[in-house]
Amino acid sequence: RWQKIFMFPLWSKMAVFWNKMFLTIIVLLIVLFLDAIREVRKYSSVHVSEKAGNVNSSAFDHIQMKLFRSQRNLYLSGFSLFLWLVLRRTVTLLTQLAKEMASHAALETQVNDATEAAKKYMAENERLQK
């Protein structure tokens, strides 16, 4: 039953679209990840922290707030990129497994039919030999 549902022609047309969307989302996540790395490097620089600390404590707090936000963005974008790739790999493996199970079932029925035919021919051969 599931085979009929997943072999619906609409899915194959949508698969092309979703593959393009997947690549677009991956590129977006990579850009966000690289931007977060750039921001973390910018605000975690010791030189900027010392300069801000000497000038004003509120400026130092402001830089620390920006550092926190950039680190948060780094963790979120990195983790979502990782999970997105894991999800994609899981879906790929499940699809391959489903195809292999279908081919295994077809081969199993083919082997059973061949075995039955061989048994029938052997029985007929023994009958003819008698």
TrEMBL record:
Keywords: Endoplasmic reticulum, ER-Golgi transport, Membrane, Protein transport, Transmembrane, Transmembrane helix, Transport. Belongs to the BCAP29/BCAP31 family. It is found in: Endoplasmic reticulum membrane; Membrane. GO terms for biological process: endoplasmic reticulum to Golgi vesicle-mediated transport; intracellular protein transport; protein localization to endoplasmic reticulum exit site. The keyword Transmembrane applies. May play a role in anterograde transport of membrane proteins from the endoplasmic reticulum to the Golgi. It comes from the Eukaryota. One of its GO terms (cellular component) is endoplasmic reticulum membrane. It comes from Tichodroma muraria. It is a multi-pass membrane protein. The chain crosses the membrane at residues 74-91. InterPro entries: BAP29/BAP31, BAP29/BAP31_N. Residues 1-106 form the BAP29/BAP31 transmembrane domain. This is Endoplasmic reticulum transmembrane protein.
